Amino acid sequence: MAVVSKRRPDRFSARQWPDWSFWATRESGGRGGRRRAITVVANSVPLLLLIPRATDIADSGRNVFLIGAALTALACYCLGYPLVLWRGPVASRRWRVAGVAGMLALGAVPALLLGSPDYLTDMTYAIVIGLMLLPLRYSWLLGFAVAVVQVVWMRLGDGRVQWGEVALLVGITAVLGTVFALTFTIGHLRAAREQVRSLAVARERERVARDLHDILGHSLSTMTVKLGLARRVLEHSGDIDRAVAEIRELESLSRQALSDVRATVSDYRTVSLAAEIAGARVALRAAGVEAELPTAADNVAPELQAVFGYVVREAVTNVLRHSAAERCTVRLGRDWVEIADDGTGPSGTVAGHGLTGLGERLAAVSGTLTHDERPGGGFRVLARGPSPAARPTITAAPSAGEEPA
Predict the structure, then answer these.
(1) Is the pTM value of this prediction over 0.85?
(2) What are the strands of the beta sheet with 379-384, ordered from one edge?
(3) Is residue 360 within 8 Å of residue 213, measured between CB atoms?
(4) How confident is the model at residue 268 (pLDDT cuts 50, 70, 90)?
(5) DSSP category for residue 343
(6) Within a 10 A sphere around the Cβ of 78, how many other Cβ atoms?
(7) What is the largest CA-CA distance in the chain?
(8) Strands, E assignment, 261-332
């Protein structure tokens, strides 16, 4: 039963209108429609209890006109119950109120025409419809009001209260209300299971998209640079041996990229920081960018090796694609990595898809990612892992092995 609080969605609230849209939505293959029809039919079976009531009305000995009107109202009441039960979950609030009011009116007609409060027991079906379609604070009051009216009418009419009739009204209402609650709770659990399944699929798609962006962005940028270099070599110098060497490296890169894509789709791919630094060296050299890279990555914490590898890959890819830089510097610490260039990078306040993905990867290991324009020109990306102790702020440019500001 989808009744939650607006301020606290995780808490139950008796003021909210019930939402049965999950039950009324038709699923693939028509299963939702069949399930809905079965639920309506199953919850309409208790209407068979009104057959003895029709017999009592016919044998009441009252005026034929009154008996006919009472039986007609009872028949409309029996027909209206499954109709409102079917239409109510997808109807507007006004339609719901009108449906409940119509059921209450039809349920009260036999008692009013025949002047007997015993027939008010039949209004339990209208109360159940109210429990289903109205906020609980209203439907509870509705059931309580009907019981009070029946008790008062009995007291004023015969001077005694038939508590058996009152108990029957309360008991049937409670049983049918419980059946509805269980029915729609099961439906909500099924809807929640489908939602969890959809979220898992969406999350896997996001992972694959992020990994493919990180892999193909760097690999294609490097291959583009090396293709351009091979073309220029052939056009200007005619050095066949150098051009062939570049093409061989390009072939190796393409094979590695294909292997990385397959491993990413299978979720078996692991990233090595040392390998990414070596790849960055090759890519920057092919693009004619002066590179200052660390010779080893052993001083980086083992749990940060993979995520820092992604940072180096994405930052170097951005240098190749966007910055037109002449120099690129990569510095490493135990729990930080910095990539800086002297080109014309993007605005420090704008994060593309790649930088956004890096931020998500670092957040997964309780790290942070910052990127901004350098005062002297260029762009800087700084990634930090979780550090047990605060480090002092350094305003000067860091040297090799020194923590950046």
Answers:
(1) no
(2) 290-292, 327-332, 336-341, 379-384, 368-373
(3) no
(4) low
(5) S
(6) 18
(7) 117
(8) 290-292, 327-332
Task: Judge whether 261 and 212 are in contact, CB under 8 Å.
Answer: yes
The answer to whether the CB of 10 falls within 8 A of the CB of 4 is yes
In three-state secondary structure terms, 85 is helix
Q: What angle do CA 294, 264, 385 make, to 5 degrees?
A: 40
Residue type for position 367: G
By the 8 A CB rule, do 330 and 292 touch? yes
Given a cut of 70, whether residue 93 has pLDDT beyond it is: yes
Pair 214, 310: CB distance under 8 Å: yes
- For 339, the 3-state DSSP assignment is strand
Beta strands at 290-292 and 368-373: parallel, antiparallel or unpaired: unpaired
Helices (H), 158-239: 163-232
- For tokens 């079976």, name the residue: 45
- The residue ranking higher by pLDDT, 94 or 155, is 94
- Placement of tokens 């339609």 in the chain: 95
Among 89, 90, 163, 164, which Cα is nearest to 131's?
89
Task: Please report, as a single letter, which amino acid is at residue 251.
Answer: E
The partner residues of 381 in beta bridges, in order of sequence, read: 339, 371
Residue 24 and residue 363: Cα distance in Å, rounded? 40
Reference 287, options 243, 223, 234, 341; nearest CA is 223
> What was the pLDDT predicted at 12?
43
**Residues in contact with 399: Cβ distance below 8 Å, sequence separation at least 6, in sequence order:** none
Instruction: Report whether pLDDT(209) > 70.
Output: yes
CA distance 78 to 108: 13
Asked if 379 and 345 count as a contact pair (C-beta separation under 8 A), the reply is yes
- What phi, psi does 19 have (nearest 5°)? -120, 110
